[in-house]
Amino acid sequence: MPSLAPRIIGTAGHIDHGKSTLVEALTGTNPDRLPEEIKRGLTIELGFAHLSLTDPLHPGNGWHAGLVDVPGHADYVRNMLAGLGHVDAALLVVAADDGWMPQTEEHFEILLHLHIDHGVVALTKSDLLADRGTAEENIRLKLAGTPWAEAPVVPVCALGGEGLDELRAALAEVLRAAPLPRDVRKPRLQVDRVFSPRGAGTVVTGTLSGGVLQTGEDIFVQPGGLSGRIRGLQNHGRALETAQPGMRTAARLASIEIAHDGAGEGAWRGHTVTTIPGGASGVLHAQFTRLDRRPDPPPLRHGCKVWLHHGTSSHEARVYLAGVRELLPGHSCIGELRTRAPVFAFTGDRFVLRDFSRRHTLAGGLVLETSARPRAWKQPRWLHCLEQWAAHPDNVSVRVAGLLERDGCFKKEGLLQLSRFTGAEIAAAVDALPDKVVCGDWIVSAPRWQAVLAAAEEIIRAHHRLHPSEPGQKLSDFRTALLPHLPDTALSEPLINALVTRGFVRGQGVIRAGDFHAEISPAQRASCDQLRAVLAADKYSPPNLSTFVQTAQDREALQILLNSREVTRLNEETVMLTDALLVLKQLIIAHLRRQGRETIAGLRDALGGTRRILVPVCELLDRERITRREGDWRSLISRNGA
């Protein structure tokens, strides 16, 4: 039978309501594989089976559906949650003799929290039904007001086979209506089982979502970023070169060990095999939602410890609520999760919160931001942004616009990598942004950019007013002064380039306004004349600075001469008139042309002067790549180099 798309169906329901028996009746596979499960007749771990279904509208087509059987006992809700991370539909099992039981309710609430809205109710042990209408009506009352309100309720008897064909048809109808798995080129295989067959190395299984995995591909195990490679792939025992989103997938990994009980480096349940090298975080911004279905539910309070169930993983965490001390049933709010260990999550992921004693399901939630800044949601603009994302979780344009409004800028490279959006969707949303400025790989909001430009111009002009004799503001000082105004330090260079297009002048390590010209006072001019006279008195062997630059006025005059390039600094203690320096350099070059090579002592004997001056001048020629030093000797790099 040709396959449309691989699909996953997860079971749910109270203990002893016949989930595993029903799975075996539908597929021929007993999902209970552990000896203890078989001995006790109690599902403890996840079980897996394959079910072929025919499309009711196109009988020539159908689905290769993976069935994930989950435990129904209250002690194993953690294992149950690990099986429902990426299912397309659910098979909720209710026994005719017991009806809707406590674990039926908790499992159903978990389905609602995870937004598993497509499903079928199997009314098992139908041979015990005295009044089918009443039994179905009681179930309908529990489903009312939820996305499952119109879900099919199918009476079945797994042992006798009655109703199995009708159940298969109902499941096929539900799968046909359920959204197809998306390929956003960000594969995540959330691991629900790890084992090591003899001679096969480490094998992990899970439901693949978000993209394809290929044999031979390099991968990472998250959180932690442990790198490895895929040696082989399987789907229900069939060898694959490429695994598609929505497939039950077994991956044989190279260079990855088993991290027993999650300790040490390696793979374990709750880890994710992906092609993304990083991104795990211990702080998530989220929306929390509580259902109002049970009397006297346990509270969810600000600061309380919980278990966060995300994908196949569970984490110790604390909940922090925005604006309330306790989240009441039937309400939602924005907040923060701080986990004991990093979580590898995408924005748009759903999760479930259970109390720290693992007795009650408290709430569900939606990841709004990964790698979040702690307590940032306390700022009004951050909170408003998170509220918009919560209201439109699948709208990439709302997310991109919110980032720009909140942060003032973002970098296109790697934008929303940990999200359920494709690169093309993200790029289109960025291109469609109004009031934006493109600065290389950066996008900046136009109002923010104009404000930064205005602040930058004022910084430069304020420097001119305070230091009218200087040729401009040092670029290093300008960048430092900009820091409080820039959304990101990487924008300083694009900003300087933008100032140049607006008439500002950049050069020689400074920046100035285009209409600015340095001015010096009569007192400064007199001080400059005095310094010139000292340097000209012995222009090829000027005295140390400390002997004639002693006051603040002297230092200011020296800086004016340096800025105008009338004087050149050789080192901290020595300056020369620039004209004299040029002559001395030419004399050294001419001597080296004649002699081929020379030492400092030889230059001193030939040209006069002192070692104190000749050494820094020769080092300057070295830096300018006019001369080359070999031990004590120097020579010209090129005969044409002068």
Overview of the structural elements:
This protein has 17 helices and 34 strands. The protein is α+β, with helices and mostly antiparallel strands and 642 residues long. The model has no long low-confidence stretch (mean pLDDT 90).
Question: Gist?
Answer:
With 642 residues, the protein is of the alpha+beta class. It is built from 17 helices and 34 strands.
Keywords, please?
642 residues; alpha+beta; six-stranded mixed β-sheet; six-stranded antiparallel beta barrel; 17 helices
- Strand numbers in spatial order across the main sheet: 2-3-1-4-5-6
Strand residue percentage: 25-35%
The average pLDDT value, as a whole number, equals 90
Radius of gyration: 37 Å
- Dominant shape: elongated
Low-pLDDT windows of residues:
none
Number of strands: 34
* Residues in helix, %: 25-40%
